[in-house]
Each structure stands twice: as structure tokens, then as C-alpha cells.
Design brief:
Helices cover 14% and strands 30% of the residues. It is an alpha+beta fold.
Length: 307
């Protein structure tokens, strides 16, 4: 079960008879494996990533660090054998870990509900996800932008003493400012007399009155990297990555996705044909270095004054 976006809590109750049975089959080190099972079925697909944590033989629960939030995970407890086999003692159900970042979907809708009304199997209000509103919202915003541009040009052209005999509309605000500065304001009046958000400043009041107020704000950033190793071979072949077997999909493809932290990751990949005679291999090394890190989550964001 998720404790927070970065940690999960798992617990189990396994009999000694079951453990002894797997130890007799070659099980040596009891461990926990956490699989990224987002949008896949582990019964016939390989996980996006796999991480293994050795644990104590007498332990009944454990805290696990989550590689990436906002994804689905499944946890195995079992024994790792000396020859690389993995013997499963028990498997958890799929659990979704909440995201570490705040949700972008904010929608407050108030409805009146009779206190005595039976709400079972009834829908009071249907909410529309933000991604389905983007197209309609973009279209509406374009219409409002055109209306605002037309109104803005009309307001500016309505300056008292405008030299043209008839009002002319300009949809480009740059052209508007050029016309006004060329025909109305003397060359020694300066930029302080340009129009502001509060109207045309004919009285010489400073344009600083239109600047937005300065106030402290909270700022945050989270960023990280993931490593994806993928490939394909004959569906009946055996593939190991770093000495550990990888389950192939039905078409022979495989994919391993994991958190990519600082340091060197050495990944020899070996494929052995079904007859055990033919082999193919590739040896890949990955190295990551983070020279600087100045990040924080939104929960740890403090109010700061802009410099």
C-alpha cells in the first residue's frame, strides 16, 4: 500500500513450511521485488522496470522506496537462487502510487442534494477531464482574443483630438502605438505618455501605476531520469540482463525501465537460443553524473520575494 508518492509499505504472512519448500528448490536469499506494471499484465508481459531489495528472513513487513511516482506497481516476495532463478512466495495486487506533483485538474462544482435522497448508483454531476476541454477552450479563446483586439483598437482611436476624420481600426497594437506617437505626441514628450492599461495617459502620470504588484510566491521543480533497455529476439529464446532472466513478450520483444541514478550501470545482455547452442550478446554501460541539484517538491516550496 502507498504511504506517500515516494514510499510504499508492504506486509505478509507466510508459513515456514512454504519457505522451506522453496529453499529446498534452491532458494538462498529472501528478497522483495517491485515491478512497474503500468498498463501491462505481468502474466505475459515484462515489467517496465524491476528493483530487488534483500530483506530479513524473520521480517513480516517492509518499506520500499518508489522509483517513479504516478505509476502502477506489483510486489513479489520470494527467493533468489544461485543460478539466477526467482522463486515466488507471494505476489501483491496492483497498486497505484499517487503523483509527487500537484494535480492540474482543479474544478469546483457545487450541487444541492436532498439529505434524504438515496444516492446509491446515481450520478449527481459529470466532470470533464481537462484534456477533453482543450479543443473547445482554444476555439473560444480565439474568438475572445479577436473581440478584445477590436475593442482595444477602438478605445485607443477614441482619444480626444485624434487627427483623422474617421475612426480607423488597427488589429496590430504596435501599429496603434506608432500612429499615436507620430501624430499626437510631440517628440519631446517621451514614452511616459504612451497608453497604459488604465487608459491614455494625457496628464503625464507615470506609467508605473500600471505595473503589477510585487508579492512573494512559491516555486518548485522536480526532474529526474529513467533508463530504458529494450530489444527483441526469438520468442522461445532465453534473455538475461546483468545475469538476471528477463521475461519475453509473445512476439519476442522485451523492455526494462528503471530509475537512472548517479553512477555506473553495467548491463551485459545475453540471448541464448532454445537449443542452447547459439548465443548473441551485447555489453552496454551507462553512466550518469548530476553536477548540480537545486530542486524541491511543491510541499517544500517556501514563499520567496522576487529579486
Amino acid at each position: 500500500m502507498p504511504r506517500d508518492p515516494q514510499w510504499a509499505y508492504t506486509y505478509w504472512d507466510i508459513t515456514n513450511e512454504h519457505k522451506e519448500k522453496l529453499r529446498q528448490q534452491g532458494g538462498q536469499q529472501i528478497a522483495l521485488r517491485i515491478y512497474d506494471s503500468t498498463d501491462i499484465d505481468l502474466d505475459y508481459q515484462s515489467p517496465h522496470s524491476l528493483q530487488e531489495y534483500p530483506c530479513d528472513e524473520l521480517a513480516r513487513d517492509w518499506y520500499l522506496n518508489i522509483p517513479v511516482s504516478d505509476r502502477d506497481y506489483i510486489i513479489d516476495i520470494g527467493y533468489r537462487c544461485g543460478d539466477g532463478r526467482w522463486l515466488v512466495l507471494a505476489r501483491s495486487k496492483k497498486v497505484h502510487i499517487p503523483p509527487v506533483y500537484p494535480s492540474g485538474w482543479i474544478e469546483d462544482i457545487f450541487v444541492n442534494i436532498n439529505f434524504k435522497q438515496d444516492l446509491r448508483d446515481k450520478t449527481v454531476q459529470n466532470l470533464t477531464p481537462p484534456e477533453k476541454k482543450i479543443a473547445a477552450k482554444t476555439y473560444v479563446n480565439n474568438i475572445y482574443d479577436q473581440i478584445f483586439d477590436t475593442a482595444e483598437s477602438t478605445e485607443i482611436m477614441g482619444v480626444a483630438g485624434f487627427p483623422f476624420g474617421s475612426i480607423q481600426h488597427f488589429h496590430d497594437s504596435t501599429k496603434i502605438k506608432q500612429v499615436i506617437s507620430s501624430y499626437i505626441f510631440p517628440s519631446d514628450m517621451g514614452m511616459w505618455a504612451l497608453p497604459t492599461t488604465s487608459g491614455i495617459n494625457m496628464s503625464g502620470v507615470s506609467c508605473y501605476a500600471s505595473l503589477p504588484p510585487i508579492h512573494p510566491c512559491q516555486f518548485w521543480l522536480i526532474a529526474d531520469a529513467e533508463l530504458i533497455v529494450y530489444g527483441a529476439t526469438e520468442p522461445n529464446a532465453t534473455v538475461t540482463i546483468g545475469g538476471r532472466p528477463i521475461k519475453l513478450n509473445q512476439d519476442g520483444t522485451f523492455r526494462l525501465q528503471m530509475s537512472f541514478q548517479d553512477g555506473l550501470i553495467d548491463y551485459p545482455i545475453l540471448a541464448v537460443a532454445a537449443d542452447g547452442e547459439q548465443t548473441r550478446s551485447i555489453h552496454i554501460k551507462f553512466e550518469r553524473e548530476t553536477p548540480s541539484r537545486y530542486i524541491n517538491t511543491t510541499e517544500k516550496a517556501d514563499f520567496e520575494w522576487p529579486s
